[in-house]
Amino acid sequence: MANLIDQDAYRRHTAKEFHPHLAHFDAELERLIRRSPAHRSMVENPFAMFSITHAFPVVHLVAMCRNGGWIYYPAPQTMYTIRDGHRTVSSSGGETRGAQPIIRFEIVTDQVLVPSKEKLELFKSAGASAPEFRTPFEAVAKPAQLFSAPLAILKKGTAGRFRQPFSLYQHVFGGGHEYPSDPGVRAVPTHSAGSPCRHF
User: Fold this and answer.
1) pLDDT (tens digit, 9 = 90+) per residue, 187-196?
2) pTM of this prediction?
3) Which of 20, 24, 39, 147 could cross-link 199 (Cys pair, CB 3.0–4.6 Å)?
4) Contact by Cβ (8 Å): 168, 154
5) How far is residue 37's CA from residue 162's CA, in Å, rounded to a whole number?
6) CA neighbours within 13 Å on the CB side: how many for 85?
C-alpha cells in the first residue's frame, strides 16, 4: 500500500504499464526523502514555488528492466541542473524563476537503453554527473516511457483536491536523440541481452 503516493490518483492518471510499479516507486520515494533534504522539501511542500536558479524541482523515479528483472532508483538531481540556454516561461508568457515540484516516473525496458552495472552505479550515486546519452536513436526498438505531473496531483494528502477530470500534456522540443526536458543528460547505455521483464 502506498505511503507517499496516492494509490487511486496514481492508477487514475498513469497508463496501465506503470501500475505494477507503484509500491516500488513509493518505496524509492521514501528512501530518497530520507537522504536528500532537497527532495524532502519538495515532497513536504508540493504547492510551494521553488527557485529554479540552480535546478528544476523534479523528483524522478526510474523502473529499469535488466536481464528479466526490475531495478528501481531515483535519477540524480544533476539531470535537472540549470544550464546555459535554459529558461522557463510562465502562463503569462514571461520568463519565471520559480516552479512547483514535478514528479516523474520512467519505465525502461529496451535492453539497448540499459547501461552497464558500473555505469548504472555511477548514475545512481548521489551527486554524480550523468554521462551523456550516446545510443543511436535508430537502435532503440521501444523508447522509455515517461509520466510527469505536478507532485500535488499524486501525493497522498493533496491528490484528493484534484478529482475533476483533466488532461495532462508534455511538449518536448528537440531532435529524436535528445532526452525529454534536456538533451545529453542520460546514462551511457550498452547493449546487454536479456529476457523480457515479468511483473510480480
Assistant:
1) 333 333 334 5
2) 0.78
3) 20
4) no
5) 27
6) 3
Q: At what angle do helices 22-35 and 37-44 cross, to 10 degrees?
A: 120
Q: Which backbone phi and psi does 41 adopt, to 5 degrees? A: -60, -40
Nearest by Cα to 101 from 34, 56, 157: 56
Neighbours of 93 (CB within 10 A): 6
Nearest to 69 by CA among 133, 24, 5, 33: 24
Amino acid identity of residue 99, one-letter, is A
Please write the tens of the pLDDT for every residue from 20-31: 999 999 999 999
- CA–CA separation, 1 vs 132, rounded Å? 36
DSSP structure class, residue 94:
S
Element (H, E) at 146: strand 145-150
